[in-house]
Automatic annotation (TrEMBL):
Keywords: Cytoplasm, Iron, Metal-binding, Nucleus, Oxidoreductase. It comes from the Eukaryota. Belongs to the iron/ascorbate-dependent oxidoreductase family. InterPro entries: DIOX_N, IPNS-like_FE2OG_OXY, IPNS-like_sf, Oxoglu/Fe-dep_dioxygenase_dom, Plant_2OG-oxidoreductases. This is Fe2OG dioxygenase domain-containing protein.
């Protein structure tokens, strides 16, 4: 059955990197209301940039926690500098990704799959076999924590891929633990509130390539969505990410040399009982610049349910979300169109 599905996918698969025509093929053209230029986009807005080294300085930690709290409430998003991941580790990861996406399509196709449960899979768009409109990206996704469990399944070509991307994956896992501690503190919880769950949790590394697009006003690299997990740590090679602000306007996230982006996911929104919101974001494409990104998606263990923290629920603040697991999310996206309805909206309890 799996071989039949793969054969069908092979027959219909078109890598975004092979689309070098002077116009966008029809299947990539978005309806007018979904195009990046439709509606209002905000002018330049100052987005939070936090010095993460403050977390390790006793006299400055409370300041960093406060800044994180404000960023989580206002945007569900912030950028971090002085985060402890060396520039050489970041550069090596981007180099390895570049080499992977430059491989012949036939070689990358050895890893292709439409099965969202696959621990390693190459693909295009969101889900090539079910998307009504396709999105202008190629990706390789792989489970990354614990690294020793998964790394042997990763691409063997280019030969440097496992080593270089592995070092970046380990570094982002450490950073994620520090950030979850800070976010827990900012909510008035013990800093180790989710410590055990995070150590046992999953990390999915989504490495994305957004090729140059001849008509970027007609297409998107990724549609509006929020991420399912606790946090996403994003590395981008150039500007292209946009987030939705409270007024439902799109804000361009600037490219800051050496910075990493932190986005709140659905698990933090549920855990905080809605005090913090997961950020809705999308990816635009560019006529002149190919963009690479590493989205390190962190989550509780596959089958572990998360629900509002008991300390944040009382007679004045009833739980406003049902519980869910990473596996529940995977089941949902296997049979539902996330563009039509966000997964987290299915968890919200109606107020009576």
């Amino acid at each position: 059955m799996e071989e039949t599905k793969k054969s069908l996918l092979d027959d219909t698969f078109t890598s975004a990197m092979t689309l070098t025509n002077s116009s966008v093929p029809d299947r990539y053209v978005l309806p007018l209301s979904q195009r990046p230029g439709f509606g209002s986009t905000t002018r330049e807005t100052t987005l939070p940039v936090i010095d993460l080294s403050f977390l390790h300085q006793p006299l400055l930690r409370s300041r960093a926690i406060h800044e994180i709290a404000m960023a989580c409430k206002e945007f569900g998003f912030f950028q971090v500098i002085n985060h402890g991941i060396s520039s050489s580790v970041v550069k090596d990861a981007l180099d390895a990704a570049t080499q992977f996406f430059n491989l012949p399509v036939e070689e990358k196709m050895l890893l292709v799959s439409a099965n969202v449960h696959k621990p390693v899979r190459y693909g295009t768009s969101i889900n090539h076999s079910t998307d009504r409109v396709h999105y202008w990206r190629d990706f390789i996704k792989h489970y990354s924590h614990p690294l020793s469990k998964w790394i042997d399944m990763w691409p063997s070509n280019p030969p440097c891929y496992k080593d270089k991307v592995g070092k970046y994956a380990e570094a982002t896992h450490v950073m994620h633990k520090q950030l979850i501690e800070a976010i827990s503190e900012s909510l008035g919880l013990e800093k180790n509130y989710l410590q055990e769950e995070i150590e046992q949790g999953s990390q999915v590394m989504a490495v994305n390539c957004y090729p140059t697009c001849p008509e970027p006003e007609l297409a998107l690299g990724m549609p509006p969505h929020s991420d399912f997990g606790s946090l996403t740590i994003l590395l981008q090679s150039s500007q292209g990410l946009q987030i939705m602000d409270r007024n439902k306007n799109w804000v361009c996230v600037p490219y800051i040399e050496g910075a990493l982006i932190v986005q709140l996911g659905d698990q933090v929104e549920v855990m905080s009982n809605g005090i913090y919101k997961s950020v809705i974001h999308r990816v635009t494409v560019n006529k002149d610049v190919k963009r690479l990104s590493f989205a390190s998606l962190h989550s509780l263990p596959l089958h572990m349910k998360i629900s509002p923290a008991p300390k944040l629920v009382n007679e004045n603040n009833a739980p406003t979300y049902g519980e869910f697991s990473f596996n529940d999310f995977l089941e949902y996206i296997s049979s539902n169109d996330c563009i039509q309805q966000r997964f987290i909206d299915t968890l919200k309890k109606s107020s009576s």
